[in-house]
Amino acid sequence: MTEFTPVASLIGGMLIGLSAVLMMLLEGRIAGISGIASRALPPWRDNAVAGRLAFIAGLVAAPFLVAGVTGAPVVQTVSSNTPLMLAAGLLVGFGSVWGGGCTSGHGVCGLSRLSRRSFVATAIFMVAGFLTVFVVRHLIGG
Amino acid sequence: MSILVNLGLGLLFGVGLIVSGMGNPAKVLNFLDLFGTFDPSLAFVMGGAVVVAFIGYRLVLARPAPLLAERFQVPTRTDIDARLILGPALFGIGWGLGGFCPGPAFTALGLGAPGTLVFVPAMLAGMWAARALAERRT
Prior knowledge:
Chain A: It is a multi-pass membrane protein. Chain A: Belongs to the TsuA/YedE (TC 9.B.102) family. Chain A: Pfam families: Sulf_transp. The complex is a heterodimer of chains A (142) and B (138). Chain A contains 6 helices and no strands. Chain A has helices at residues 6-27, 33-38, 49-70, 82-98, 103-112, 116-139. In chain A, helix 5 packs across helix 6 (116-139). Chain A is globular. Chain B is mainly alpha-helical and 138 residues long. The longest helix of chain B has 24 residues, at 114-137.
């Protein structure tokens, strides 16, 4: 069980939306994490690589900023099943780039732009996620 | 300048992920567990983010250009191709297995959980492979 957190989740979501809007205002780009991360990897094709690495560094630093401000450690539960996490990582990495976006690029940014492609992509990864968890937790029995 | 701006934007995005609870894969997996320990929080995260971005994009894209770049780079494609079906399907399966999508995987990296330290390199390898394969085909 995890506690339902409507207020914190709404506020956090609005901060994510604000970051996406500021990215468009300042850099003129979509704040899609899979696009940023995949283009931060070699081969480097443009001069925006340093900015992408800096964005990722900001993501990595974020939990320490939150913990420092609130004084409470960031709580998370991550599976330590190595084969499962290996497969999950490969699928998330390959699938997000192959489909041109993830939860941020297609989900947040694409839906906000009313992009037809992003509505299709978001519907598919949501359904795939629901089905996967159903199979793992209720059919196989996790 | 661009480095500091991007660092700040990444930090803001990451703080949003942590505050929203989406940095925790358990909350994501419980959202996806409709018939079990369902936690609807993720819908509020998406709702908050999309409302702010929907309004903000309309204000920003009414401008002639962004502040620090020459022009807006917004996707213009509208076709539904096989990649747009297969990619999100694979991504969704991986998301349902690990509870991580790319953003939360990065915010989790420094916390050093063993599963994260397996997931992130695998994710980067998958991203690299998809990009290499896509660029070879075009």
